[in-house]
Structures are given as structure tokens and as C-alpha cells.
Amino acid sequence: MASISSLGVGSNLPLDALLTNLTTAEKGRLTPITQQQSANTARLTAYGTLKSALEKFQTANTTLNNADLFKSTTVTSSTEDLTATTTAGAAPGIYTISVNKLAQAQSLSTSIDISSTKDALGDTSAESRTLKIEQKGRKEPLEIKLTKDQTSLEGIRDAINDADSGISASIVKVKEGDYQLVLTSDTGTDNQMTVSVEGDSKLNDLLAYDSTTGTGNMKQLVSAQNAQLTVNGIDIERPSNTITDAPQGVTLNLTKEVTDARLTVTKSNDKATEAIKGWVDAYNSLMDTFTSLTKYTEVDPGAEAQDQSNGALIGDSVVRTIQTGIRAQFTNSGSDGPFKTLSEIGITTDGTTGKLKIDDEKLDKALKENTTATRQLLVGDGKETGITTKIATEVKAYLADDGIIDSAEDSINATLKKLTKQYLAVSASIDDTVARYKAQFTQLDTMMSKLNGTSNYLGQQFSAMSSS
User: Fold this and answer.
1) What's the Cα-to-Cα distance from 344 to each of 322, 330, 357, 374, rounded to whole Å?
2) Spatial distance between the Cα atoms of 241 and 39, rounded to a whole number of angstroms
3) 427 near 1, Cβ under 8 Å?
4) Comparing C-alpha atoms, which of 112, 111, 115, 110 is closest to residue 178?
5) Cα 227 to the center of its chain, rounded Å
6) Tens digits of residue pLDDT in 88-132
7) Each residue's pLDDT tens digit, 40-65
8) pTM of structure
9) Assembly and partners (predicted)?
10) How many helices and strands (H and E) does the chain possess?
11) Angle of helix 31-64 relative to helix 387-399, nearest 10 degrees?
């Protein structure tokens, strides 16, 4: 409330300063409320930080909660002309591979000189026309209805490409005033094309081609062909140059014809090790968050306030519940294998900080010699057993809309609403009190001014009487 500079002039009393002091004293009633608001707002922010840290840990936990990590392999090739990748479950071994033929995509082109890419090529009197492309590998033929405006090279090209069928169309400029339409299918003999146009004989004369007989007005630039190769002496034929099932779990990328290329598939623990280390790092980061949110700095006896660096969630039951719940799973895997705790695979807890640390040598040995047991300990059946499986269930419950964090936030928000109402009520009360003080001081000032005026008058009269 602003000071009233004229208050006290009539009485020569420090009423203005007195009203300011009383106002300050009254406003002190708001301090406990604002302190509670600040504390609760800080707790709300802290819960947001806690939730974010849990989500990051859950991401790392989900990555590790994958049985395929423990079935990983790597592959090397004796030649750059044959490359390969592996997926989970690929059988380790050495494979001798010869590529005799690469898969090819059939390519057809118009054989008549076409001077413009925009001129209509169909029969303008035809009411409708349908471009049909049949392929053995397709259950139903590709049928595209063309309007009169779509019978130019550009119109046909765009209509085919817009169908997104695996068949592509392009226009090739042979020379000035000489253009060709080129159709290209996916690789493999089952994708060779038989083309016709129904309802427009003129356009059919331009585009017709029968791949079963090799006849038609279009010409074949490249014939369809399957990839042919041998894997350890077994003859393999596929429509694509990407072979995903010979052998299973290995993807071959054919780029050239090769003879007796050697692929070596070996077991690898790199992905599992990376995921475990990422999981440990994420858990330790979560522990840092716990420590920051519950930090306590001791103050001297008799101090009026706590240290300002203290965490917003000191002694908070939600934090304790989450910490205890996650840690409990480290020795509660329910594994049927020989490993029952993290320490048995080289992951131990620091007694001082509560963080995890890895014995690289012990972990490497566990992954090499007891891969299945390590997987059983960490992943289990992926539903009920396994450390990461159980942790995933725990953390999911903590982060749920009706979980303990959400409930705590709802409680704080309700408290903040009450404090806001309380603040407004007290503030209004203060304004009323100060207004009452001001009115009283104004009356006092007026009355004192009148009394002072009367006193001065009487004094003057007494002085006049004494003089006479």
C-alpha cells in the first residue's frame, strides 16, 4: 500500500510512518503462506525431475529387456563383392557362397518415335481406357484408368508412378524430338510384365507387350532374371539380390557374381555388453537425481532456517518407495538359471553411494561362458521373471497416471489451490485493516488539527487579556 505523505500534517504526529510500519507488520501475515507456496512449488518441480529421470532409466531398461541381445552375431566376408548382416539367432559357422547370376528387373520401352511428351497419344473418341499390367507374382493385375488428358507420355508416366505398385515409369530423351517411355519392374522373373490397354486401341498399339511370348509393340531392354547362387553347395534361387533366409538369420547383399566367397558368422556379446553398460549408467544417473532431490546439509544448532541447498524432497516417502522398489529387484529375479543376483555377473552396488559398478572381466566371462544364464537373470521370460522385466513393471506403475508420483502431484496442486485462496483472503483482510487504520489516523489528524487550532486561539486570547 502506498504511503500517505499528507497524513500527520494537521497533528504534527508521525502518523504516516506509523501507518507504514503497521502495514509492514500486517503483510507479515502473508509470509508463512508464501513460504508454503514456494516449498510446494519446489516439490512439484522436483517430482517432474524425478519423473523425467525415471523415464530415461525406463528407456535403458527396455533396451536391455530384449532376449535377442544375447543371441547377437557378427559376420565377415572374404570379399567386398559379397556383404552380409546378421540378425538374432543366426547360427555361427563358415559359409562358402558362389553367386552365379544376379537378379534383374525387366525393363520395357516404347519402340515408336514420339516427338512430344505432352501430346495425347490415345484415341480421343474413346470414352474410357484402362491400362493393365499383369505379373505372375501379383494376385491381381495393376489396373489404372486413364483420362483423355492422361494419354501423353507424361500423363502415363505419372499415373503409373502414382499407383505406387513397384513398377516405375520414366521418360528417356533419345534425341531432340524423339522420346521413349520406359517401364521397369521389381527384380525377378515373377515380376515380368504383360501390358495392355482396354478401351483404347490406339494406346494399346503403343504399349502392348506379352512377356509370356515376348511379342508386342514395346521392346524389352532388360529381361527379368532371378538371382542364382550356391550356399555350401546347395543351389538357391531368389527373385531379389537381397537374400534374407539362406542361411536363416543372415542377410546376403548380392552386388556381383563371385566364386567361393567365405562368410564367417561368429557369436558376439558387443550389443549385450553395450546395453548392460547403458543400463548401469542410466541407473547411476537416476541415483544422482535421488541424491540431489533429497540432499540435506546440516546447520548449526539454533539456526532459524535450513540450508538453502537442501533438496525439495528430503524425507519424501515417494522417493524412498521408488528407491526401495527398484533395488529390491536386484536380488529378486525369479531366475531358474544358476545366476540369482547381479553381483554374480560382475555388477555390484557401492555401499557408500548406492551406485552400480561393473567388473568388466567378470561380466565378459559371464556373457561368454554362461550367455543363457545371464539372459535368464536379466530378461527372464519377459513377462514375470528377470530383473529388467520386474523393474519395467515397477517403473511403469510409478509413472502411471494413477501412480504414486501422479498422486503426489495431485495432492500438491490441491494444496497450492488452498494456499492461493488463503493468500487472497489474508491479503483482503490486510487491505481492510490498513484502510481502517488510515481512516482512524485521518480522523485523529483532523481532530488534533481542530484542537490545535482551538488551543492557539485560546492562547492568543489569554495573551491579549494579560496585556490589557
Assistant:
1) 24, 11, 13, 9
2) 65
3) no
4) 115
5) 40
6) 878 899 999 999 999 999 999 999 889 999 999 999 888 899 999
7) 898 899 999 999 999 999 999 999 99
8) 0.72
9) Homopentamer.
10) 10, 19
11) 150
